[in-house]
Amino acid sequence: MKASVYYGKNDIRFEDLPVPEIEDGDILLKMKSCGLCGTDIHKALHQTVTGPVVLGHEVAAEVVKVGRRVTRFQPGDRVVTAIHVPCYSCHYCDRGHFTLCEQFKPTHIEPGGFAEYIRLPELHVKHLTHKIPDGVSWEKAAMVEPIGCCLHGLKQAAITSGCSVLVMGSGTIGLLSAQLSAMMGASTVIVSDLSTFKLDLALRLGIDHAINPAQENLEARIGEITDGLGVDVVVIAAGVSALLPQAINLLRRGGRVVVFSPFDHHNMVSIDAGRFFRDEISVIGTYSLSSYEMPEAVEIVRKNRIKLDEMITHCYPLSRLGEAIEFASNPDNDVLKVIMQMDE
């Protein structure tokens, strides 16, 4: 089978690999679409993984073979899946912190999403894999996993009817989070970004306000929009730790900051710590998704509750993964979500 294999920075090779062998509880998939995630780009450019390795995890695929014990799926089914599975019985799982489970990160699909064929281990088949609803395209189906990640983070924000939400960063995760916030009942949704293209796209998606902090004073604009009270929730969807102090300053009393994007290790920032006691604010971290968000995300896509077609700006054949990463990472390009597909 063909796969795009990451060996190192600027070294991704489209080459032949053996088709994975499945066991009795596994299924074999033929990849149809796989989203290019910001973490894939970060790993490739900053060499945070050691090659050779097949990246990719936002998978929409066709079932081509099932193990003897598999009863929920059969060849020909269209499915979506995700990459990590918790144990559901440890200290963290018992408290609902599934993504902190020691089993979570070591679990993987084989060899990765950027491959022609993918083996889903039994745990993934049991807990993370769902049929794609009729009428949903392969491209939109590949958005289920990132939607699930955003749902996981927004649940920590406790968004209620009438909330105001600021999303800092208008990439794929930022614009998904903004749309989902409105879906959850937020009455005012604001995004900020330095990209005119992404801000214009946000407005076309129905976001209330789009602010470029290089051209406007973000704190002043938030003050105008919220009558000087600040926002109830800030979602940081850009990996810039300097955004955290600003996010805290933009909060209303009792507000919450959700840190979605990874910050660099040991990157220290100064914040107004007095606000935690004085104003009962909260800062919450979030990572990945649990199996409980996957079916919710499938339903959101099935019911067209958010706009996805406008967010998918480019599709590339799998053989051109390196080119896709270079294009998507260039801030001068008008690009949001890139979907990889098998070469015809």
TrEMBL record:
Keywords: Metal-binding, Oxidoreductase, Zinc. The keyword Zinc applies. GO terms for molecular function: metal ion binding; oxidoreductase activity. The keyword Metal-binding applies. Pfam families: ADH_N, ADH_zinc_N. It comes from the Bacteria. Residues 8-336 form the Enoyl reductase (ER) domain. InterPro entries: ADH-like_C, ADH-like_N, ER, GroES-like_sf, NAD(P)-bd_dom_sf, Zn_alcohol_dh. CDD domains: iditol_2_DH_like (cd08235). Coiled coil: none annotated. Gene3D superfamilies: Medium-chain alcohol dehydrogenases, catalytic domain, NAD(P)-binding Rossmann-like Domain. PANTHER family: L-THREONINE 3-DEHYDROGENASE. This is L-iditol 2-dehydrogenase.
